[in-house]
Amino acid sequence: EKAPEKVFAYAYSNVEELxxxxxxxxxxxxxxxxxxxxxxxxDEFDKIQYMDTQRSKEExxxxxxxxxxxxxxxFSDDWLSxxxxxxxxxxxxxxxxxxxxxxxxxxxxxxxxxEYEDILNLGKIFDCEDKAEEIVDQMKGEIDxxxxxxxxxxxxxVAVLEDEGDSFRVYGTETLGGNIPETLGAELKLxxxxxxxxxxxxxxxxDPDVLFMINYDGFMTADEAIADITDNPSKHIKQHMLxxxxxxxxxxxxxxxTGTETIAHPAEYETRWVQDSAAWDETVITxxxxxxxxxx
Length: 296
Hints:
This protein has 296 residues and is α/β, with parallel strands linked by helices. It is built from 10 helices and 8 strands. The strands form 2 sheets. A 4-stranded parallel sheet has the order 2-1-3-4. Strands 5, 6, 7 and 8 form a 4-stranded mixed sheet that branches. Helix 5 (112-125) packs antiparallel against helix 6 (129-150).
């Protein structure tokens, strides 16, 4: 069949993959980004029609796309409706595999291998398989470089987290965020068995070597996510993360010498009349100790 000509794209994965494949001119509209696209894709991104807000199903129909690249959750009654709605209108659809297109994460963990497959699938759909294979090979090459770099060393323990205010969401082994460091040879200190949220004390007890903080523009910037976990003493984390030890703090006052000063006492001479008398012994106080422990 003929490759699609008018694409409606939703979410980072689809928008960036289409741009990376050189298909920006096929995108009639896009939405669903949580921040800026990759730096090397910005020029192409600026050429497409990007919408800051999600458009209704009727508005998307009015765009007359012949292909929709979105998430599994996009094709629900709450938004785009079932894929059959679009197939009846001769509009083909594609769901990112890691968006639960295969099924729940507990049965089908999200992996970087599925990211590769998404790119290769889009390459087949748009007749640009060579470019898709080039991108995947480059991604695999970067992973191989990291593996070679850490070969023969003890694996780092990591935690991949998202700040949700009163707790941290854990990206475990069944998530893409957890799969990536595991693929690179790291060990998940949190999320290896489950991805339940954890509190600050749980994070301190886990004591990971490295923290990865996930953020979404509009909720928290990258700098805010980092500052929140390193600069907030109420979470008992800053010193723990920076020094690699248990997270706690105390207030301590210490007197320190800040300088010295030499005072001269010149000799003094005077003439005095004294009465000679016999020698005697006298007891004088040369110091004392207070009950509080002070001495003089």
